[in-house]
Structure prediction request, 576 residues.
Amino acid sequence: MLWKLFLYMTFFSLLLAVTTGFRHPYAYPLKEHLEGTFCSDSFFRIHKVEDLYAWVKATLIPGLRPKRWYNKAAPVFQRGFLQDRTNRIIGYAIMRQLRVRSGACNVYSKMEPVLRHCYASYSLLSQDEEPYGIGWTSFQGDTSQNNSGPEFRYTSAHDLDGIPYRGKITWYSGGGYVHILRGTESEMIQRVTELESQHWIDERTRAVIVQFATYNPSTNLFAIVMILVEMPGTGNLIPSKRIEVADLFGSVNSQTLAQNITLKVLFVLFLIAIIIKEVRHIFQQRLTYFRKFWNLVELSILTGSTCGVAAQIYVILSAQRAVEEFSRTQGKVFTNFMALAYWNETLTYVAAIICFLASLKVLSIFQYNQRISLLGSVLRYAFQDMKYFFVAFSLMFMGFVLTFYFLYNDSLEDFRTVISCIESAFQIMLGKADMTRMYKMEVILGPLLFAAFTFFVIFVLVSMFIAILEDSIQHVKKDSALQSDVYELPKYAFALILQWTRLSQTKWGNSLVNGMRPKPRGRIIEESEQRLTCKLNQFTTMTEELLWYLQSMIAIDLVKVGESVNETVDNTNPNV
Prediction:
């Protein structure tokens, strides 16, 4: 048990050291800085195409280039830096749009006399990939001589090394009609003004995406910026942003880098050792191994750790290739870090799940302790009741969720989708919901539905849940009270350390060791019960013997009385 505890706690410590190394203390300040530079309040006030062009010319482009110094001198040796003169852009930024094909939407037959055209919502199947002339005119000519421009010819996701991106409305392709943001600030503003006059964004545009990546040499952090403005065809624009800060190379300090590499190597070695141990257990126990909950948790930890190591290696190698390409071309090509952002986010999710399961696994290591094992015992005892309770809870909870969805999906953002309705319903359970907005949207049904949800879910179902747990705790406590105490492993391990170091021979060490010995209270209770049972059996036997003796004496007395009565009768009647 001690060896198992040592092995797993060492692995758990290495896991925490390696996973927390993914998080950089300056990641959030860098993300907040970039959000303030490019996604200020003016960005979220974009409601029209004119607002989008104004934001590009007044906020985006000035933020991509450093300003002149206080003495009007040119920013020499700062080519490629952002406005803050600290973050270096990798390559250049691009602005691409995604469009829908003409004819992908059919007007309702009864509205055809009034409306002749409509444009479909965006999907990966309905997007437009055809080349056009400037101003979205018909394409004329060939690839060498034509009336088109690069912003009016489709660039595939393969050429951009792009992957689909999720917005608030739908998924968007990694390709598009691309405009390169390159040159001086005045040149970029002039080119965007020309695109505005050529109606580059029109009624068939469904999304405009701005993306670029930066590198901060002071913190050795990369930032992948994705700015999206969706145009769902309803007349409004929906802006959103995503800034992923990633520590792709680790610390540049040689001492810190050596420590990180050492920790990762030790983690991999311990991971291999535990994998070998679990494989041996699988061969020994076969299908029985997969029937135990803690074995499944252990298997999930090992699988997730292996996938995390592979993902980390892929991210580092991909980042090195991207940086080498940037250095080779001296920043004259677009470098797409979008895939790296997704892999880095996936690695973060895997690390979080592994740390959760590993922390949960610690409970199984200390399940020898009566107090700690109480949780598992309660859950096992309450499993059958909980199973039926969650069926009833799910049915009633989803009934209210669907009612919220049908009632508020077109009026409140918190109830726009079924998933958001589930989240909002849990917020109501926690007392975090805003009843005022629900009341304003539905004056009659809103308060009634809120009151019904509060009564049936919070007062009834939650009370049932607590009652089931309380009943299970009481039963488990009654059962565990009859069990004898055992050595608690931390005390036992500490006592062994005292004995190994011969500190137990000292006065205070001897008192500690003696104080850690178990008190045989359970045995005393058990022996007392046995003696009491024995005494009761003896008393019962003696009582039965006494009753038998008394019955015998009474019978003898009755016989004697009968004989005396007969003699008396004979004496009084001599003629008989």
User: Anything to note?
Assistant: The chain has four domains: 2-17+253-365, 27-246, 380-481, 487-520.
